[in-house]
Amino acid sequence: MHVIEIQNLKKYYGTKRGLESATLYVKKGEIYGFIGPNGAGKTTLIRILMGLLPKTDGVANVFGKPCQMGDADIQKRIGYMPSDASFFPEYKVSELISFFGAIRKPNPKYVEKLCHILDIDLDKTYASLSFGNKKKIGILVALMHEPELLVLDEPTTGLDPLIQKQFLDELLELKSKGVTIFLSSHVLSDIQKVCDRVGLIKNGIVILENDMHILKKEEHKIVEFSPFYPIEVPNMIDFQKTAEGGTFKYQGGMTPLLKTLSQYEFTDVVIRDVSLEEIFLSYYESEDYHD
Ligand SMILES: Nc1ncnc2c1ncn2[C@@H]1O[C@H](COP(=O)(O)OP(=O)(O)OP(=O)(O)O)[C@@H](O)[C@H]1O
User: Fold this and answer.
1) Which of 81, 136, 226, 235 stands the most exposed, by the fewest C-beta atoms within 10 Å?
2) Is 242 found in the same domain as 118?
3) 200-247 residue pLDDT tens
4) Greatest Cα pair distance in the chain
């Protein structure tokens, strides 16, 4: 059984398209990265998943049951962080933790750990926090009751690099304990670091879904070198001159590539995988980027 099952999901706001036809599956214990340009339908899909928005058509199941508002059993098993999470502005952070603690009955030791990882200042009022510090409270509230499924909409936006790393490490630790994580983000390097599978949505349609390692394996390598020489390697494509030297894409064995490269007096050569950003930009750019 999949923890999340979305099949031909459609959502129209009146005549305006929210989702056209979204299909994706999330397995137990995996971290699934959900990405797409602005207005593609990510938040719409997540809100339907959380039972906050009715669908127009299709299937949306969580833990094998249709997503619907007020299903307390299901809600208990999920930790949700909306992209625009906000809390009582006049409450101190410590009071917010007590408030949600009374409802969710978390393990105090785990709350303490999260406060430490996220470097949360307990004495400030919520209203006085910066954007990034407010984000941390959203993360804390979503994770505190140690749910089986985490649904996180843009969790890392605004976090400083150290906190971001600690938060992503925590997600990996939760995954190792069997927690399933559905993560929407514009920060593709985060997705690349932690996700097992990735879904790309564009204009309300999930146009690509694959394992991260397959996605990267199917792609070519990027070779960057300096200074410039007009080199030729079999199977190279997109050869370009750059300010420092040159670059090309390459698909094939390493031996012929290294043999050719060794014939030149380079000061620097980098052979690297294509980044997730480069893979997805090629999909975004294949048609009009925005809807
Ligand atoms: N309440 C609403 N009423 C009308 N249209 C809406 C509403 N909410 C979303 N939409 C439209 O549905 C489409 C999908 O929006 P959605 O917010 O789901 O995209 P998104 O992928 O989350 O975008 P972003 O990355 O910018 O947050 C957009 O065209 C948006 O304008």
Assistant:
1) 235
2) no
3) 999 999 988 888 877 766 668 899 999 999 999 888 988 999 999 999
4) 69
Ligand 1 centroid, distance to 213 Cα (angstroms): 30
Residue nearest to atom 29 of ligand 1 (CA): 39
Statement to judge: residues 227 and 154 lie in one domain = no
Give the domain extent around 251: 220-273
Number of separate domains in the chain: 2
Tokens of 68: 């619907």
Counting ligand 1 atoms within 8 A of each CB, the residue from 9, 38, 44, 45 with the most, and so the one to mutate, is: 44
Tell me: the pLDDT tens digits for 11-65?
A: 999 999 999 999 999 999 999 999 988 899 999 999 999 999 999 999 999 999 9
d(CA 252, CA 176): 34
Structure ipTM over 0.90, yes or no: yes
19 C-beta closer than 6 A to ligand 1: no
- Tell me: do 207 and 226 sit in the same domain: no
Q: Does residue 262 share a domain with residue 247?
A: yes
Q: Tell me, rounded to whole angstroms, the distance of Cα 63 from its chain centroid.
A: 21
Ligand 1 atom nearest residue 291's Cα: 29
CB 83 within 8 A of CB 154: yes
